[in-house]
Amino acid sequence: MAKILVVTSGKGGVGKTTTTAALGAALAQAGQSVAVVDFDVGLRNLDLVMGAERRVVYDLINVVNGDAKLNQALIRDKRLENLSLLPASQTRDKDALTDEGVARVMEELREKFDWVICDSPAGIERGATLAMRHADLAVVVTNPEVSSVRDSDRIIGLLDSKTVKAERGETMEKHLILTRYDPARADRGDMLKIDDVLEILSIPLLAIIPESMEVLRASNVGCPVTLNNPLCAPSRAYIDAVRRLKGDTVPMAVPSDKKSLLNKLFTRRAA
Amino acid sequence: MSLRKMFNRRGSAPVARDRLQLILAHERGNAGGSDLVMVLREEILAVIAKHVVVEQDRVQIRLERGKDVSTLGVDIELPVPLVPRRQAA
Fold first, then answer.
1. How many CB pairs below 8 Å do chains A and B form together?
2. CB–CB of A183/A209 below 8 Å?
3. Buried b vs exposed e over B21-55: b needs ≥16 C-beta within 10 Å?
C-alpha cells in the first residue's frame, strides 16, 4: 500500500514540478517503487521535466474516463525502472476529471506502488483540490517571498479542510520545502529568513533547496536534478528530504554564504 | 550606497515578515466563515431601512485593518428631505 504525497503551493512557479521530479527520483534511487502523477490538466510539464514528453500516449484523463488502462498510461522511466509517470492531458481541461474517477485511479495506484506523488497545479481551484484530495501527507513548496508564503498559508488551510483525511477528522501531515533560498540575500536582510517562514506557516521543515544553476540545467535536459547531478547542493537537500520522509533523522543542512570577506568586498551585488 | 546606509542597513526582510504576520492573522480569522463585511452591510442596512428609506447602492462600507485595532466605516447617503418609512398599516 502506497503513501500518497501531494506537492502543492498555491502560487505558481515556486518549484512544485521540480520538487515532484526530484523527490520521485530520489525515492526511486533509494529502492522504492514510485509513481509521479501530473494533475496540471491543460498545462502539463512534469513529462518535460522528467524527459518523457515524447513517450506520452495516454494520460490521467483517459484513465479516469476509462478510455485507457492505468498500465497503458503509466510511462516507465528509462533511467530508473521503479519510477513511473502518469502524465496529465494537454488538450482537455480540469473539468474532465471526475471525483469518482480520480478516487478510483488513486486507489489503483495505491495498490501498485510504495509512493504516489501528486504534482498539484497552481491555484486553489478544482485541479489543486483534487490533487490533494486523497493524500496521506503533503509537501508545501514555498519561496522565501511574501506572495508565496501567503498562498502557502491558504493552501495549508485547504489541506486541513478539503481533503478526505481532514473530512474524516484526521490530521494531515504537512511538510515545508523552502525553495530558491539565497543565503547571500538572507544575510543582507533582503530575503525572509528560514525561521520567519517557519514561524509564520508553523509546519515542520523538510528541506531547504538553495537557489542553484543545477536545477535549471536538470530541467533543460529533462532529468530530475537528483539523477542529473546527485552531488550538487539542491540534490543533496532533496535526498536528505527523502530520508526524512522514510523516517530517518537527518540533520538539516542550512545553505550558507561561503564567500570570503575579501571575495564579498570585490563582488558586485546583484540587483 | 552611502556609508550611513551601509552600517544602518536593516534590510527589507523584517518588513516582509511583519506585513505577512499581520495579513495572515486576519485572513486566518476569516477563513471558513462568510464574508464579514457583506454580513455587516446587510444587517446594518436592514436596521436603518426599518426607519428610513435608503437606496441600496448609496451605501459604502470600509474595513481598515490595523495592528491593534480595526475600524469599520459605514457611509449611508440619506435622501434630502429625510423620508421616514411609514408605519405598516
1. 43
2. no
3. eeebeeeeeeeeeeeeeeeebeeebeebeeeeebe
pLDDT, tens digit, for every residue of B26-78?
A: 788 665 444 666 777 778 888 888 888 877 777 777 777 666 777 777 788 88
| CATH number among 3.30.930.10, 3.40.50.300, 3.40.50.2000, 3.90.180.10, domain A3-267 | 3.40.50.300
pLDDT digits (tens, 9 = 90+) for A179-191: 999 999 998 999 9
Q: A140, A174 in Cβ contact below 8 A?
A: yes
pTM: 0.80
| ipTM for this model | 0.78
Could you tell me which residues are beta bridge partners of residue A115? A3, A34
Nearest by CB: B31 against A150, A157, A192? A157
> What is the arithmetic mean of pLDDT over A23-44?
96
Torsion of CA B13, A194, A7, A3, to 10 degrees: -160
- Domain limits of chain A? 3-267
Interface test with B, best of A156, A190, A195 (most B CBs within 10 A): A190
The chain A residue lying nearest B22, using CA atoms, is A200
Report pLDDT digits (tens) over A137-153: 999 999 999 999 999 99
What residues of A are in contact with residue B24 (Cβ under 8 Å)?
Answer: 150, 153, 200
Give chain B's length.
89
